[in-house]
Backbone:
């Protein structure tokens, strides 16, 4: 946890806001609390905008307030870490799912292409052209193959 006074006497003449901005930039989960002087709401809000979890008015500080702000800062930091971890897991799962769908669709498309080519060849054979029963079965196979191909393309587009 980082407790920073707005005017902390930095040799580089940075303010507490500058320090918090750098600290949060280097460690996004670091809970920072800014201490400000009385009647400095604008300064406090600037601190929150750059990454401070909260601010405490030095003129009105009480132990209960300090403890509440510290508990909140620690809880918020823990929650952010957990959310980031869940986000990373979601990205990994999404990438895995996309790759699996791509592979599955590819593995389905190859045999479908062979089946469709064979159906076209069967339709061109003289035996099939003269046999209504065989023609009916070939058309049924072709219809089912077209449905599978359409489903495969839908899966890929998803």
Residues:
């Amino acid at each position: 946890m980082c407790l920073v006074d707005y005017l902390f006497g930095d040799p580089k003449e940075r303010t507490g806001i500058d320090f918090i901005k750098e600290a949060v930039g280097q460690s996004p989960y670091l809970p920072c609390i800014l201490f400000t002087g009385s009647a400095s709401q604008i300064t406090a809000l600037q601190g929150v905008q750059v990454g401070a979890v909260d601010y405490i008015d030095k003129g009105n500080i009480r132990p209960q307030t300090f403890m509440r702000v510290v508990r909140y800062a620690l809880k918020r930091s823990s929650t952010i870490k957990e959310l980031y971890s869940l986000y990373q897991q979601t990205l990994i799962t999404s990438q895995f799912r996309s790759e699996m769908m791509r592979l599955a669709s590819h593995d389905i498309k190859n045999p479908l292409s062979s089946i469709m080519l064979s159906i076209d060849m069967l339709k061109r054979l003289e035996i099939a052209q003269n046999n209504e029963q065989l023609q009916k079965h070939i058309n049924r196979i072709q219809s089912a193959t077209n449905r599978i191909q359409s489903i495969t393309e839908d899966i890929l587009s998803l």
